[in-house]
Amino acid sequence: MSATTSRGYPYPTLSDDVDIPGDMSSLAAAVDTDVQAIVDSSKSVYVEQTTGENNQTSITYITGANVCGLTFVAPPSGAVKLWLTGRFQNDTSGRTTGMSLQVAAGATIGSGSVISAAADASALECGPGASDRIQATHYRRLTGLSPGSTYNVVVMYRVINGAGTCQIYNRKIEVEPYLSI
Q1: What are the sequence ranges of the domains in the chain?
Q2: Sign (positive/negative) of CA torsion 170, 173, 174, 180?
Q3: DSSP label at 44?
């Protein structure tokens, strides 16, 4: 066969020799490969960390000693939905605790060139009362990833609005690929 579609499916042209079984076999193999690639790139990945982080005082985003992170491969769309669930407590009156996600290039969790930094604008927040506790979930869409490239995502947290302490109980991440955008 001398021609293919934009998705790589082969088809005969008028100048090709007639080979219906061979042509059908080539087409079936190409469709099978394409469908398998779609299935492989549409799987969600998930991680949960239940070991707590007690009496944290950092005013900049950190991962803590018990890191919660995972790696994923960007789908063909270059877009994913990032889910963050956290259960945490703010211990200082007048302060807020923030929990956010950081995405970086590469397979080493917590390392690599940062693609999307942890930020207050995309954080779960708890406070400003002493002993305020929350469990919450939110998601955000991340686009512009290089299809087929490996990335890592990690939960980070901090005390917002000055010195204070917080308790981190549970962290969960799920990365859900978008098939198209």
Answers
A1: 3-41, 45-177
A2: positive
A3: -
Q: How far is Cα 69 from Cα 118, in angstroms, rounded to an integer?
A: 13
Contact of 129 with 93, CB cutoff 8 Å: yes
Task: Report the alpha-carbon distance of residue 177 to residue 181 in Å, rounded.
Answer: 10
The candidate with the shortest Cα–Cα distance to 49, out of 123, 5, 109, is 109
State the Cα–Cα distance between residues 86 and 170, nearest whole angstrom: 5
Q: What is the pLDDT of residue 120?
A: 94
Structure-token pair, residue 83: 């889910």
Q: Given CA atoms 122, 127, 131, 132 in this order, what sign does their dihedral have? A: negative
Q: How is domain 45-177 classified at the architecture level of CATH? A: Sandwich (2.60)
**pTM for this one?**
0.81
Q: Determine the Cα angle at 101 with ends 99 and 106, to 5°.
A: 150
pLDDT band at 181 (very low <50, low <70, confident <90, very high): low
DSSP-derived secondary structure letter, 62: B
In single-letter form, the type of residue at position 110 comes to G
What is the three-class DSSP state of 8?
coil
The helix (run of H) or strand (run of E) holding residue 144 is: none
Check: CB of residue 1 under 8 Å from CB of residue 10.
yes
Question: Looking at residue 47, what is its pLDDT?
Answer: 94
| Half-sphere exposure for 33 (CA within 13 Å, toward CB) | 10
